[in-house]
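>> received
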Amino acid sequence: MKKIILIVPVILTMGIFIFTKCNHHRDAILENFSSAELDNFKYGSTGNEAEFKWKSGVDSPTEPGEKILSFKIDPTDSAGAGRGPEIISKDFTHFGTYAARLKVPDVKDVQPNVGAVVGYFTYHMDGELGLSEIDFEWLIADPEVIYVGTWTGPGGKLRRIGRTLNMAKGIIYSTTTREGHAGTRSPLTGDQNQPVSIMAIEGYNASSQFYTYGFDWYPDRLKWWMIHPETADTVVLWDYHGSQLGIPQNHSRYRMNFWHTNNWSVETNPNSLEKPIHPYELEIDWMSYEPLEK
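>> returned
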């Protein structure tokens, strides 16, 4: 049975955000990948057109009884975001709560220095308003590490806010902002750097089992979180507020992808840039979106 958690943000009359469970909401998305056809997404890879790169409604190889969306990286694809398998929402999404349950590939015994990225994110470039991107990313060479953040701004003048964490060790490596991909990283402080420390999730490894991840996108706040696999508590990874810097305001499209990088190594392994040598498999159980109540 699919383990799906739907949490919808609601605003009280006093202007305080709370969360309440909801089974249905207009314009909501719930894609459980139980069939071969996608209801809310379309396939959008810009790389090779190999059929094995994606299939929906197939049996999970690691969790008996689950139907999943399978992404397999093509070793012959060139490096670059979007070259590997990717799904893109048919409609725009905006403020609200996003969640997904997924398991990244386990490569430690096969190719520990592989350069490959799993991206769970929103992305849309508007000619006038600029980029609207909110992301979770895993560099599968070290599945203990999670990258979260946003990209905003017009093309050529992009702004990044980001946090890098090791959830198995309870380490926040950095919480910074920068201009462009090569800009100087400046630490974020105060309300932009909450929580300032984080408890480890014992045994966390994004490739060892399915985990549920999500983010809450408000006009003036962003919160990335995951569900603790033992207690089912919500573990806040980053509660970013106190500034509009880096908070996308324009609508976006909801996405998942898996691709080869040859210039971005994981925090803990500078050698992790190798081209994939096998069609490693990403498993996605479900993805959901609940719009912000107005």
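>> The two ends are 32 Å apart (CA to CA).
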